[in-house]
Each structure stands twice: as C-alpha cells, then as structure tokens.
From TrEMBL:
Keywords linked to the UniProt accession: Membrane, Transmembrane, Transmembrane helix
The protein's name in its UniProt record: EAL domain-containing protein
Keyword Cell membrane: no
Domain of life where this protein originates: Bacteria
Entry coiled-coil feature ranges: none
Organism: Paenibacillus glycinis
Domain EAL: from-to ranges: 24-277
Length: 284
C-alpha cells in the first residue's frame, strides 16, 4: 500500500515494504556496533581430498552472532556492509582473523593447509590492495602461499581491464580462486591470461547433477578445462555420496560440501579433522 502525502509529494510505504526497510535500517545500525562488540565470528568449512579423506584447506565464512536475532547469515549482512561501506572494516577483520587462526594452527603443529577468504568487489578495488594484504600477512605471520582469495568472475573481468592487481598478488605468493564458477559473466579467454589458480564449481551445477545430464556435462567440461589449463578445481555444495561419485569419476578430487562437513567453529575443525596426536601437541 502506498500513501501519498498531499503537501510535499513524499511517499510513505506501509505494510510489508515498510517492515523490510525498517529491518534493514535496524540491521545497518546494529552492524556498525557488531564489530566493536565482538559479535562477528568465522566458521571454517573443510575442503577435502576425496581419495584419502584428508583436509587440504578451509574456507572462512563470516557470521554475526546477533544479540536478539541469533546467528545472521552473510547472505543477509554482507550486502548491507557493501551498501554502507562497512565492507572495508568488516573485510579487514575477516582477513586478519582467518590468517591469525591459520597461523595458530600451523604453529600448533596442525596440518599445513590453506585458508580461503571471500573478497567483495569493493575490497578488491581498494587502493594498494597488495600492500594492505601483505601487511595483514606480515602482522599475523601467515606465509602467503597459505592464503587463497576467492573472487568472482565479474571481479576477474574488472581486474583484467583495470590493473595488474592479480599479478601483484600472485607474484607475492597468494593464490586466487574463482568462486561460483560458471554462474557469472566472464570470458574464457581471461582464464589463460590471468593468474587464476583454481576454479570453484558453483553448487547450482551440483544440486541436480545426479539426474540432470546437462549439469553433469557442464561440470565434466569445467573439470576438463581446468586440467587442460593447468588449474586446480574444487566442487562446492556436495551433499550426497551419489554427487561425490560423479565428481570423482570425472577426476575432481577436491570437494567442499555438507557431505563431508558443514562450516564449523575453529575448535570443532580441530576436534573432527586434525589428527589426534596433533591436537595433543596443540594443547601443550
Ligand atoms: P560462497 O563463498 O559461495 O560460500 C559457500 C556457501 O555455501 C556458504 O554459505 C556455505 O555454508 C554454503 N555451503 C557449503 N556447502 C554446502 C552444501 O553442501 N549445501 C548447501 N546447500 N550449502 C553449502 P554461507 O556461509 O551462508 O555464505 C554465503 C555467501 O556469503 C558466500 O558464498 C560468500 O559469497 C558470502 N560470504 C561469506 N563470508 C564472507 C566474507 O567473509 N566476506 C565476503 N565478502 N563474503 C562472504
Ligand atoms: Mg566462497
Ligand atoms: Mg561459492
Ligand atoms: Mg558466492
């Protein structure tokens, strides 16, 4: 329902829309405080090598422990952070925390695995990105080869036209992964021009892969292309053994999905995925 204010022509939206807007404004205000009040935290989703079940990396995923709403998912608050410019501060916190945690694990004798961090396009365009990320790695002590940045296809296209940013990052030793691969707009020719280490097959192709021949064909093609381009490939959103079998039959060994594990708090990653002897070492 839309009401018109006769005097100045402003419109007041009521009902559903008003409630949504109201909620967004509330979240915006609360998100500003969330960082200071320590309400953000990271879960880590294991990435598994199917052949031997070893964890080869984790993806850091941010969550907001909201005082009254419970855990708010990044799908809700990342867009707000992007709209309001809070993404810089939030993104810095995520990068620092992810690197700090991985360095702590390495130091405690945990497996020498990578941590993947999602970047927003605005972060990607911040000036001196390489210097800024170098600073975080130096502060936390994590070696660059253990950090993987997840960017989207549109970010890759931007990088291609604007700067040598991807080259700078990879020359420093950081790895670049193309997230949600296959869902964005990108030109395949950039895959050979730019330093992309890994394709991450989007879970929309996985969901129906057991029954949908087209999805299966697309996934098989992405895997084969990655191999020919000498890139790594990982599938996300694997939930069942049947899906897993199709991926491994097609030579995709790296898997992220509920089949192996949901995103977990750091301590649960240690409990469930670190070798027992190593946990003992970490406890000392
Ligand atoms: P993404 O980077 O594609 O992350 C994977 C998402 O898929 C995660 O959702 C994860 O929980 C979910 N997922 C993993 N395996 C499965 C599965 O087997 N089945 C299903 N149904 N889902 C699965 P989440 O944690 O809600 O994150 C959503 C998105 O929010 C992420 O998608 C990413 O784009 C964004 N995001 C998360 N953390 C950050 C962050 O720190 N910074 C930025 N810029 N974006 C983030
Ligand atoms: Mg991701
Ligand atoms: Mg993804
Ligand atoms: Mg995504």
């Amino acid at each position: 329902e839309v009401k018109k204010n006769g005097k100045n022509g402003y419109q007041f939206y009521t009902g559903e829309l008003n409630a949504q807007l109201q909620e967004k404004i509330e979240l915006e205000v609360e998100l500003r405080q969330a960082l200071m009040r320590d309400q953000l935290f990271l879960d880590y989703q294991p990435q598994i090598r199917a052949g031997d079940g070893q964890m080869i990396g984790v993806e850091a995923l941010v969550r907001w422990r909201h005082p009254s709403r419970g855990t708010v998912s990044p799908g809700v608050f990342i867009p707000i952070a992007e709209e309001t410019g809070m993404i810089y501060e939030l993104g810095t916190w995520v990068l620092r925390e992810a690197c700090r945690q991985m360095k702590t694990w390495h130091d405690a004798g945990g497996p020498l695995i990578t941590v993947s961090v999602n970047l927003s396009s605005q972060q990607f365009h911040q000036p001196n990105l390489t210097t800024y990320i170098k600073g975080i790695l130096e502060d936390t002590g994590l070696e660059p080869q253990y950090l993987e940045l997840e960017i989207t296809e549109s970010m890759m296209m931007d990088a291609a036209v604007s700067t040598g940013i991807l080259n700078e990052l990879t020359e420093y030793g950081i790895r670049i992964s193309l997230d949600d691969f296959g869902t964005g707009y990108s030109s395949l020719s950039y895959l050979k021009l730019l330093p992309i280490h890994k394709l991450k097959i989007d879970r929309s192709f996985i969901r129906d892969i057991v029954v949908n021949k087209n999805d299966k064909a697309i996934v098989a093609t992405i895997i084969s292309m990655a191999q020919h381009l000498n890139m790594d490939v990982i599938a996300e959103g694997i939930e069942t053994k049947e899906q897993l079998d199709i991926l491994t039959d097609n030579d995709c060994e790296k898997i992220q999905g509920y089949y192996y594990s949901r995103p977990l708090p750091a301590v649960e990653v240690e409990q469930e995925f670190f070798a027992p002897m190593r946990i003992a070492a970490a406890a000392k």
